[in-house]
Design brief:
Layout: E1 4-9, H1 14-24, E2 28-33, H2 37-45, E3 51-55, H3 62-70, E4 74-78, H4 82-90, H5 103-119, H6 124-135, E5 143-148, H7 156-169, E6 174-179, H8 186-189, H9 198-206, H10 213-219, E7 221-224, E8 227-230, H11 244-257, E9 260-265, H12 273-276, H13 286-294, E10 297-303, H14 306-320, E11 327-333, H15 335-338, H16 342-354, E12 359-363, H17 366-375, H18 379-382, H19 387-401, H20 416-420
Helix pairs in contact: 1-5, 7-19, 9-11, 11-13, 14-16
Length: 421
């Protein structure tokens, strides 16, 4: 049996001993001794070795660990003391040699992990699935709801904010997260200052360790009784601060903190950075894809205008590749753009061209929505009897009860030709 290459990224004087023990093992060989974790990522992505041995070091973060896992290599952490060992585990490295282990014992551990991986070949998808399976029982406390919508401002922030407010008013402790990397507007929508670290602050802490309720509470702002908010980035140019791997950790912690977690997502669903760059590139849409993947319920929001419906139809295929059964909410439903029976017309078009069985219409209600936007308040506060508020409250009630929030109006064909063209 040929020896398997091992990439070493161990800092300090321990590196030479680990390298010597790996080279002495009959089934292992040192493939690359790296000066830093960046070199280790490059070597792993190039297929230089099947395993990476690394220690705690300044530039090691959750994003680095995720990048290494995505290459399909086996990761083994080494630490000289209990605290660095716990730090490595907190960053997502499942196999960490106990402090005090000899170099030969570390080499045996690497060989054992490689043998286990050979029986079940690793891949990006299987590695993520294994992590999800290991955390499933612990991570299913609260419900995660991701609100997505295509480009064109269909009203996803309005739906997300008011949905979170309705859940909180029903007695469900709710955390609202603005994860839109293109134009986060949750803070403005509810009259809050956006000059706080919010989600970006929690992400920074998640990059270097675990997140708990105390960290979330430190960065979240209380908007109402039972409703906390992690505001988004203040400028779209800061999108690189919302690292997908760290967002996974934030959402894991959020499940333990709130009964419901509502995420306002961006519109982009493409993940084509690897096609455009020779090296690993940051993914602007990674936060949205991470939120959709982690969500127990995805709400796809579209606008009732013909162009809005067309954009929703095109986007649903991409959404379904991440979330199989999104709840489709059509916003601003009105006869002026959809015919005399607008809800039926929209339902017919989505059934014919997007195979959507059920929709939830939110009626066009401009005066209350404009008042809420002007005052920086939710509909339940400034227009409790408005049609839009009642529709969103119905969605919240169904989600809180675990029921189907969709409805099936009688259908007509009013918009079919416009959308088809």
């Amino acid at each position: 049996m040929s020896a398997v290459g091992v990439i070493i990224a161990v800092s300090g004087g321990a590196e030479s001993g680990v390298a010597a023990a790996i080279d002495a093992h009959p089934r292992l060989a040192v493939a690359r001794r790296c000066a830093d974790v960046a070199e280790a990522i490059g070597a792993a992505a190039a297929g230089v070795g099947g395993a990476v041995v690394l220690s705690d070091q300044p530039r090691l973060s959750r994003a680095v660990v995720a990048a290494l896992i995505d290459t399909g290599v086996v990761l083994v952490g080494v630490a000289a003391a209990p605290e660095p060992a716990e730090q490595l585990r907190a960053l997502g490295i499942e196999t960490v040699a106990a402090p005090g282990w000899t170099d030969d014992e570390i080499a045996l551990l690497v060989a054992d992990r490689l043998a286990h991986a050979a029986r079940r070949p690793p891949s990006r998808e299987s590695a993520r699935a294994e992590r999800a399976e290991g955390q499933e029982s612990a991570d299913r406390d609260g419900q995660v709801i991701a609100v997505w919508g295509p480009t064109g401002a269909p009203g996803r922030t309005t739906i997300a904010v008011n949905l979170a407010a309705e859940l909180a008013r029903s007695g469900t402790s709710t955390l609202l997260i603005d994860a839109d990397t293109y134009g986060g507007a949750v803070a403005q929508a509810i009259g809050m200052s956006d000059e706080v670290p919010g989600l970006a602050g929690v992400i920074r802490e998640a990059q270097h360790g675990s997140v708990d309720a105390a960290i979330l509470a430190r960065h979240a702002v209380t908007a109402a009784e039972g409703l906390s908010v992690l505001t988004g980035i203040t400028r779209a140019g800061r999108w690189t601060e919302i690292a997908p791997a760290a967002l996974e950790e934030v959402l894991r912690a959020a499940r333990h903190t709130a009964d419901a977690v509502v995420i306002d997502c961006g519109f982009g669903l493409e993940a084509d950075e690897e096609l455009q760059y020779d090296t690993r590139a940051p993914q602007r849409n990674g936060a949205t894809l991470t939120a959709l993947s982690a969500a127990d319920q995805v709400i796809a929001v579209g606008s009732a205008e013909p162009l809005g419906i067309q954009r929703l139809i095109h986007g649903l295929d991409a959404v379904r590749s991440v979330a199989a059964h999104p709840l489709v909410v059509v916003n601003r439903v009105r006869a002026q753009v959809a015919g005399p029976r607008p809800a039926e017309a929209v339902a017919d078009v989505l059934a014919r061209f997007a195979e959507v069985d059920r929709i939830t219409p939110v009626p066009w209600d401009p005066a209350p929505c404009d008042a809420a936007a002007l005052e920086g308040r939710v509909l339940a506060e400034c227009a409790p009897r408005s049609k839009a508020r009642r529709a969103i409250a119905g969605i919240a009630s169904a989600l809180a009860l675990g029921a189907d929030a969709g409805s099936t109006p009688r259908r007509s064909r009013a918009l079919a030709a416009a959308v088809k063209d």
